């Protein structure tokens, strides 16, 4: 699940070997100050906090009702102020409007009261989001990696957040049986073939292939 307003993702899985339900939480977009302070790719570990609760508690009608109501509400409520970074006396919005703390700290803290922290292996991914500005705070003409949102404000170029959530979810689900990389290769092959049949420009197909 992608809790959009809180810049967070939540994976809920039923563990086959034990009678537990596991909640795994991670932030979707890194904070812009971390990206701008890092040379090259930003290394991020997934997931963040993980909590196990018993299946009996999870299947309780009251528990499910309150959990689903809270997640739906937090998906739309922008609770903290929008974070931003001052660069050359100009405000460049993060594009990730919230710190994920309401999910990674508040929700995880509540779930910990029902269960216990889960011990699990983490995966590391190299995040290649970028924002390029000149000394005046404007995007350079040769590399315009800022885009306009619906309000006309500049946003940094970022990779697809949905693709990140899917990759993390699939990697945890498929790595145990060794199918994650074959699935990614199959998906990329299918995507490239579909784009070829739809007459995508050759330069776009090249960028897709090398990425």
Features of the shown structure:
211 residues; alpha+beta; 7 helices
Which SSEs are present, and which pair or pack?
Blueprint: E1 2-3, E2 8-14, E3 20-27, H1 32-36, E4 42-46, E5 50-54, H2 55-58, H3 61-76, E6 84-87, E7 90-93, H4 101-114, E8 116-117, E9 123-127, E10 146-148, E11 154-156, H5 161-174, H6 180-197, H7 202-210
Antiparallel strand pairs: 1-2, 2-3, 3-5, 4-9, 5-8, 6-7, 10-11
What does it look like?
It is globular, with a radius of gyration of 20 Å. It is an alpha+beta fold and 211 residues long. The two termini are 26 Å apart. The chain folds into two domains: 2-175, no CATH class; 178-211. The model is unreliable at 82-97 and 139-145 (pLDDT under 50). The chain contains seven helices and eleven strands. Helices cover 38% and strands 23% of the residues. The strands form four sheets. It has a five-stranded antiparallel sheet with strand order 1-2-3-5-8, with helices on both faces. It has a two-stranded antiparallel ribbon with strand order 4-9.
